[in-house]
Amino acid sequence: MSEFGDLYQQVILDHNQHPRNFRPLEGRARRAEGHNPLCGDRLSLWVDVQQGRIAAIGFVGAGCAISKASGSMMTEAVKGKTEAEAEELFRAFHALVTGDTAVAPDDPRLGKLVVFSGVRDYPIRVKCATLAWHTLHAALEQGGGVATTE
Questions:
Q1: What pLDDT, in 10s, does the model give residues 60-102?
Q2: 119 within some domain
Q3: Which structural domain, as residue segments, surrounds residue 89?
Q4: Can you tell me the mean pLDDT for 32-55?
Q5: Counting CB atoms within 10 angstroms of each CB, which of 52, 60, 66, 98 has the fewest?
Q6: How far apart are CA 50 and CA 76, in angstroms?
């Protein structure tokens, strides 16, 4: 396995085994549910937006390692960002994992999220990697309901 592949595996496993921000939020946080019907991943996501910025974010759920690691890394990446910055990061991440050449893997907006670039080689896993992000989008839109990857 390449050095990048080893790093990818280590980061994914770490965030799967020790997910960051893996907890519900109390109070007035926006909430959305996410479901990937293809593999059964499910999550609940809470976002506390204060003065247009994501002040706190948390999630709980069950799913594969990629799904849980993506949710964990997403919460770290968007905390402190404005809603617009979080939406832009969602678009950049989605482009990364779908192989859209509009976003280069070394795009500075992505930071550590670049470890998910290998997902694009496994189209079935793209839905796992993007579930938390679609759920974040639903929470920010305040639409509630269930976000899916379909």
A1: 999 999 999 999 999 999 999 999 999 999 999 999 999 887 7
A2: yes
A3: 3-141
A4: 95
A5: 52
A6: 17
